[in-house]
Design a protein that fits this description.
Layout: H1 4-19, E1 26-28, E2 36-39, E3 43-50, E4 57-62, H2 63-76, E5 80-85, E6 89-93, H3 95-101, E7 109-116, E8 122-126, E9 129-130, H4 139-148
Parallel strand pairs: 3-5
Antiparallel strand pairs: 1-2, 2-3, 4-7, 5-6, 7-8, 8-9
């Protein structure tokens, strides 16, 4: 049986290959837990998914998730977070975006909410505010390309 996580993460990687170069190497960062991957040899990506068909989509971040992301950022200089919003699309955050909505004071559990109006872009809101400007469905791949300098 194929798990929901495999389906949603597989969708991310299929879109990634369409949007970037098909020769991009991907490896799992299993020592950090589920959802952590390394693109090329230099860009960590953390994927979370929501199965909801329509927004708003909510994503919980435990303290350990944020500590892992901070460690990866310190090691590699960036860490991209992909918030897979059902079948709607993927909201992507680089580390500065993530810190704008969830600061460096990690709580035991924090939440990010993603909303998108009809034909609109994603509004991303966390405990510490709203990310501005809004994020397009393809922004995550642009952030990845810029970080990898493809």
């Amino acid at each position: 049986m194929i798990s929901d996580t495999s389906l949603y993460h597989g969708a991310f990687f299929a879109l990634l290959l369409e949007e970037t170069t098909p020769s991009l190497a991907v490896s799992r960062l299993s020592e950090y837990g589920s959802g952590y991957y390394l693109l090329g040899s230099s860009l960590p990506v953390y994927l979370k998914h929501s199965k909801r068909r329509k927004g708003p989509w909510q994503f919980n971040f435990f303290r350990s998730h944020q500590e892992n992301q901070a460690e990866l950022y310190a090691k590699f200089g960036e860490c991209i977070t992909g918030l897979i919003c059902g079948r709607d699309g993927i909201a992507g955050l680089n580390m500065s975006d993530l810190r704008a909505v969830l600061d460096t004071e990690f709580e035991e559990q924090e939440c990010i909410t993603v909303r998108r109006g009809l034909r609109g872009q994603y509004e991303i809101r966390g405990r510490n505010g709203i990310l501005g400007p809004r994020v397009s469905r393809s922004a995550v791949f642009t952030k990845i390309q810029n970080s990898l300098q493809l």
